[in-house]
């Protein structure tokens, strides 16, 4: 892993002059994204909400250049059909819906379908993101999934597993609380003030290495 990290960093350094010709003010940022796309060729950043994409690419650029840590995307956006397929496969594997929901949510409840969720690798990268991702609005939300992070405008309460979030979302009103996901009201659209509050979001928007 250290060898791969060193090679990837060398590639990024070599790409900086090319990136400078394309975007002088963001050369290191672009070079990092290009190098990481070569290191993790199977990752797909398409379909992520703009805020999620900007937060992730900027967070991993900081991890890369400041701490030499590589962070790749295992799974990001999933369309509803794919999420349903994964959920039903987990139901068959575990033998019950309730057991499956501890690991996978149906599409109407999944952050992946909304483009707000990220499954990352390797474990060292996830540890870095858990320590520093909050500066970018990226938080680990489940105890049983070290790889799963979501973009939030406020820090959520860490839940034991995905089904706990579903229960809170469905029953919070019975206890005098708004319907929430974690500790944040679940919006129909991503809050626009999240963009206004983070100037760096506009800089990285639309970049898909």
How does this model look, in words?
The protein is α+β, with helices and mostly antiparallel strands and 209 residues long. 48% of the residues lie in helices and 10% in strands. It contains 9 helices and 6 strands. It has a 4-stranded antiparallel sheet with strand order 1-2-4-3. Strands 5-6 form a two-stranded antiparallel sheet. α1 (2-22) crosses α2 and α2 (27-39) crosses α3 (50-67). The longest helix has 21 residues, at 2-22.
Architecture blueprint of SSEs:
Blueprint: H1 2-22, H2 27-39, H3 50-67, E1 72-75, H4 80-94, H5 97-100, E2 117-121, H6 123-132, E3 138-140, E4 148-151, H7 162-171, E5 180-181, E6 184-185, H8 193-197, H9 200-204
Antiparallel strand pairs: 1-2, 2-4, 3-4, 5-6
Helix pairs in contact: 1-2, 2-3
* Total DSSP helices: 9
The ordered H/E elements are: HHHEHHEHEEHEEHH
- Mean of the pLDDT scores? 84
Annotation, overall tally of beta strands: 6
- Described by the principal axes of the CA atoms, the overall outline is elongated
Structural class: alpha+beta
- Over the alpha carbons, how many angstroms does the gyration radius reach? 18 Å
